[in-house]
Design goal:
single chain, 107 residues, mainly beta, Cathepsin D, subunit A, domain 1, three-stranded antiparallel beta sheet, 1 helix, 4% helix
């Protein structure tokens, strides 16, 4: 998920992260979430990096599920967030030729 990490800190003995994202109206908001774990991202021809993983509620169509997402600077990418197969499995059928076919309908 596209996020600008502001600060990593400790709260009640747990690791947390404060980060900036854009909401659905394009306004920047600052969120704080507990870090669940770190993931090591291997990159071609360059060093690997560690990214913090948080739990985030995701609404896709009428389906709302909490999912682990890693935070990264995706400003140079076409999509601000990638939805993985773990979230999609058992709920969605994907046509790779189409994009933005549904809007969030969760309450």
């Amino acid at each position: 998920m596209n996020a600008k990490i502001i600060k990593k800190f400790t709260r009640d003995g747990k690791k947390w992260v404060r980060f900036r994202v854009k909401d659905k109206r394009g306004q920047e908001v600052i969120l704080e979430k507990k870090i669940e774990r770190y993931v090591k991202i291997k990159r071609k021809l360059i060093f690997s990096i560690k990214r913090p993983v948080i739990k985030l509620g995701i609404c896709l169509g009428k389906v709302f599920r909490e999912q682990e997402v890693n935070l990264a600077d995706r400003k140079n990418f076409l999509y601000p967030m990638l939805i993985g197969r773990n979230y999609l499995k058992g709920y969605f059928l994907v046509d790779s030729e189409l994009t933005f076919t549904t809007k969030p309908l969760c309450k």
